[in-house]
Automatic annotation (TrEMBL):
Species of provenance: Aromatoleum toluvorans
Keyword DNA-binding on entry: yes
Protein known as: Response regulator
Domain Response regulatory: 49-163
The HTH luxR-type domain, residue ranges: 179-244
UniProt-listed InterPro entries: CheY-like_superfamily, Sig_transdc_resp-reg_C-effctor, Sig_transdc_resp-reg_receiver, Tscrpt_reg_LuxR_C, WH-like_DNA-bd_sf
SUPFAM superfamilies: C-terminal effector domain of the bipartite response regulators, CheY-like
PROSITE patterns: HTH_LUXR_1, HTH_LUXR_2, RESPONSE_REGULATORY
4-aspartylphosphate, modified sites: 98
Keywords, in A-Z order: DNA-binding, Phosphoprotein, Transcription, Transcription regulation
CDD domains (alphabetical): LuxR_C_like (cd06170), REC_FixJ (cd17537)
Pfam family name, one: Response_reg
Amino acid sequence: MNPLTLEAVEKSARSGRCPNVAAIERRLPWTTKFVGQRTVTTSPATTPTVYVIDDDASIRESLSSLIRAEGMIAKVFESPLEFLAAKELDDFACIVLDVQMPGLDGLALQERLAQRGTDLPIVFITGNANVPDAVRAMKGGAIDFLRKPFEGFELLDAITAALSRVSASFDDKLKTAELMERYEHLTPREKEIMFLVAQGKQNKIIAGELGVSESTVKVHRHNVMNKMQMRSLPELTIAIQRLNRS
C-alpha cells in the first residue's frame, strides 16, 4: 500500500472504503455502511469528530478526506492557536496533531490542553520524528506518534484507539443526559414518589406520608416507571444514583 497522499485518499474515498474499516466497525460504537459510492453512517447518538491541526493545507485536505470517507466528522485548523480559540469542543472526539508548526507547536498545545483540563486523546503526526519529542508526547498521554508519510490504515488504527478511550466516558454522559431529560418530564408529585419508592417504601406507607390514597400512589408510581422507561425497582434505584452523581 502506498503512503498517505491526497491522490491515494481520494481513490480510497471513491472506492467506498479504506483497508481496515471492518476492524474499525467492530471496535467503535457507531456503524459505517457502504452502499455503492455512498457512505451511510448510523449511530444511536452521535458521530465522532476528529480535529485535524496542521499548518500544511494539503495535509489538512488529505486527512479530512480520509476521515470523512470513514463516516466521521473532520474539523480542520491551521494552527494550535486557532484550535484554542474554538468556543466549544465535542465530547466524542480526538485530535490529530502535527508536531512542528510555527509559533505554538503541537507539544506545547498538548501541555496547554492538559492545563485546561481538556482530555481529548491526541494522535501526533510529524515529518521530522525524533526520540525526545516522541517520549515527551507519549508521557503526555498521546495515543500514537506517526511519522509522515504514513499509510491511511495506520492513522485510522490510531484514531480508532483514541476514540475507544473516550467512548466509555461519552456513553456514560449520554446515558445521564437521557435520564435527566426523562426526569424533567415528571411532575413534582411523581418526582417525590419516585424517591420514596426508591427508598423501598411500600405504597401504603407513601400514601400515609403524603396524605393521599394508596390508589393515587399506584397511579403516580406507574407513571414514573413509564416516563423513566424503567422495568424494575432496582433499575430505578440505579438511575437515581446516576442522577445524584450528576
